[in-house]
Amino acid sequence: MPRQPFVCGNWKMFTRAHSAKDLAAAVAAGVTDDRVRVAVCPPYPYLAMVAEVLRGTRVELGAQNLYPAREGAFTGEVSPEMLQDIGCRFAIVGHSERRHGLGEKDAFINRKVRAALDAGLGVVFCIGETLEERQSGQTHSILTTQLVEGLQGIQAAELPRIVVAYEPCWAIGTGQNATPEQAEEAHAYVRGLCRQYFGDAAAERLIIQYGGSVNPQNAAAILSEPDVDGALVGGASLHAEKFLAIVAAARNS
Ligand code: PGA
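# 2-phosphoglycolic acid complex -> structure
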C-alpha cells in the first residue's frame, strides 16, 4: 500500500485573527482531492476560529503544542482534551524550537506524546540533529535517542496515529534545506529504527515528513525520495500559493 503524503503547515507565532482566517480559507480552496493529507497548525488563540473556516473542507486542523495533563492548575497551558474539543486532529510535539529554545527534554516530550494519544489526538513527532551534532558524526545517535526516548511505551498498534517529522535544526528557517540525499538517508535510518522497535508492518506504513526550509522550488526533489512521505512547512506555509505548490509537489511525488 503506498503511503498517503502528508503536508502540514506550522504557522508558528505568526498571523493575526484576520490573516489566519484568510490563509486557512485560501488553503482550503486549493485542496480539492484526498491524494495528499493537508493540515495547518495556527497559533493557539486562532485555533477555534480557523476550525470554523476549515469545517467541511479537506484541510485538517492541528495544534503546535500541548501540555501533558487532562486539566489542572497549569497556568497558561493547554490540554490535549481542549485541543480535541475544538476540532484539532493532532498536535506537533518535540519541535526543535521547543527542545532548544524552551529546554524541552525527551522524557517530557514522551509524556506529551502519551497524553495526546490518550486524548484521541494524533501526533506529529519532531526529531533532528543540530549542525554541530551533524558535523561531529552524531546524527544517527541523536535520532536514535530522540526517537527511542520520545516514543518510549508507545505500542506498535499506536504508531499509525504518529507521524515522524525529520527536521534537521540547521535547516529550519535558514533557507538551507537538506539535500534530497541527506533527507533520504536520515529518513531511511528512522524507518529502520522503527522497524526494529515497532516491526516491519508498522514501519512500512509510517509517514515520515521532512521539515526545514521546504519551498516550492525544492519540494519536488525532496518529496520524490522513497522514504520522504510529506513535509512539515514553516515559512512557506504562511503564503497560500507557496504552500499549495508544495502540496502539488507532494501529489506528484
Ligand atoms: P521552515 O520551518 O520551513 O520555516 O524552515 C520548518 C519547521 O520548523 O517546522
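# post-check
DSSP finds eleven helices and eight strands in the chain.
Strands lie at 6-10, 37-41, 59-63, 90-93, 122-127, 162-166, 208-211, 230-233.
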